[in-house]
Amino acid sequence: MSLREFITYNPWQKGFSLLFAILIWFTVRQSVESNGGDPVVPEAYSRTFEHLPIRVLTLATDLEQSRVTPGEVTVVLRGRPEVLNRLRPQDVEVYVNLTEAPPSPSDRRPVHVNAPGAQLGSVSPQEVLIERVVPTHKSPRDNP
Questions:
Q1: Which of 32, 74, 113, 136 has the fewest CB within 10 Å, making it most exposed?
Q2: In the chain, which residues have pLDDT < 50?
Q3: Residues 57-99: pLDDT tens digits?
Q4: Measured between alpha carbons, how far is 66 from 130 in angstroms, rounded to an integer?
Q5: CB within 8 A of 111, min separation 6: which ones?
Q6: Other Cβ atoms within 10 Å of 74 Cβ, number
């Protein structure tokens, strides 16, 4: 097949392919410009949140109190810079779930993290110690 035959063979398909490639190029270029010059899939950025308190999720019928040791964690989140910059520490939910199975008097549980629009990079520590606190009841005679 000569070069002339190669170029003129299936001209409609070749023209459509060229037009489609140009449309894709314009779409990607417009997307990059609308993101302030950031690439379409940016590199992952990270942000560290320190001293986030841990909440304990329990059943409504569970009236016992639990102590979490340590009571705070450090969380590293990854994602787009504009999302991470908008996040406040109170937007990041850190919790230990005790609804699945009640803990023994002293038990280790994994720490869960929810952050809107971001991915979890790491959490330190990954597990915490849960201790059941037995409330002390004072008798009416103890009050002077």
A1: 136
A2: 40-41
A3: 887 666 677 788 898 999 999 888 888 899 999 999 999 988 8
A4: 6
A5: 54, 73, 94, 95, 96, 123, 125, 126, 127, 128
A6: 14
111-118 — which CB contacts under 8 Å span 24+ positions? 111/54, 111/73, 113/75, 115/75, 115/77, 115/87, 115/91, 116/87, 116/91, 117/79, 117/80, 117/83, 117/87, 118/47, 118/77, 118/78, 118/79, 118/83, 118/84, 118/87
Statement: the pTM of the whole predicted model exceeds 0.85: no
Which pLDDT belongs to residue 66?
77
The CATH code that applies to domain 45-133 is 2.170.120.30
Residue pointed to by tokens 């009640």: 102
- Reply yes or no: is the peptide bond before residue 125 cis, omega within 30 of 0: yes
Q: What is the structure's pLDDT at 41?
A: 43
